[in-house]
Amino acid sequence: MPRHSAPQQPTWLRPRLVVAFVVATAGLVTAVWLPTRNDSADAAERNRSTDRLSRSLPAFADDFSGRRGSTVDPGKWALRTDRAGDGVQFSQSVRNARLDGRGNLVIVLRGEDRDAFSTARLYTRGTLRGTTGHVEARIKAPAGEGLRPTFELVSATRTNTGALDVLGEPVTDDGFHTYAVDWKPGEVTFSVDGRQVRQETLRNVDTGQPFRLALSLTVGDNRRDADLPARMVVDSVSFSGADASAEPPATTPPTSEAPTTPPTTPPATEPTDAPTSEPPTSEPTTAPTTTPPPATSAPAPPAPAAAEWAPFTDYVAGQLVTFKKVEYQVLETHTSLPGWEPTALPALFKKI
């Protein structure tokens, strides 16, 4: 058959056209699917952020353990970087907020050029919540005029509302002091080193609102009298509370311990019913002593040394443990689990 009369192959079966069609289809599918996937990922991230806000933490603790000169734990704290006005600039630099390597956070207020100041203000990254709760921090506040150290509870949803300053009037004797606030519906109590300093009544206040803890050192009205650089040292911060939707915390039932003193002992000498019929002898007789001498209590054994905290261990209230070379006292009897370190559960452990 002549070549010109051979049947022509259909155009849609040519290999080059088939390959081009497949490539074009794959590109179209990718162009349609990829933006949708990104939108889904963005929505998921927004939902996770919203969930973190709605699921406020009922407990928080930080003992600021870390390498000297390093910054705070970014999973627990965020640092502001804006300007507060009056020449005060908040900074993330370790010149203004750093760990000292001995379990302390140091916030430094510095004087800068043109009557400006640099310092740090830290917020807890996660939100906290408790209709009743206890917040405390062990702080060494700087002495001197023109300085304003603060440890505050700040609303996580109402940024224009005022803050509750736990530090109040700090003790400036160059020593650490424990500042705390306890609240319940209708009442808030402030204390320093376990001693109540003031009590306030709350009316029409929802104590279950989410909040954050904040630490800062700034200047006051008479800032020109401030001796700079000034330092505020924080040893530890903790919070434990009860969420509005949670059940009331279970109270530890009273322990039925055996009485420390045994029941009444039988009389030392047994009474004789019948009188003796023998006449008394002329020679004096020395009767043996029937009353036992008082028992001397054995010296109490020395208290066992605090053992290192470990998971899957039974701990009793009052027991001492160590974690990262720091000693803690067990507050409630429990069996430890991974993630229940003393620094993570201030409701179960108290730093000594």
UniProtKB/TrEMBL annotation:
Any one annotated GO CC term: extracellular region
Record keywords, A-Z: Hydrolase
Matches recorded under Pfam families: CBM_5_12, Glyco_hydro_16
Disordered: annotated span: 241-305
Chain intervals with Low complexity compositional bias: 242-259
UniProt xrefs under SUPFAM superfamilies: Carbohydrate binding domain, Concanavalin A-like lectins/glucanases
GO molecular function: carbohydrate binding; hydrolase activity, hydrolyzing O-glycosyl compounds
PANTHER family: GLYCOSIDE HYDROLASE FAMILY 16 PROTEIN, GLYCOSYL HYDROLASE-RELATED
Protein name per its UniProtKB record: GH16 domain-containing protein
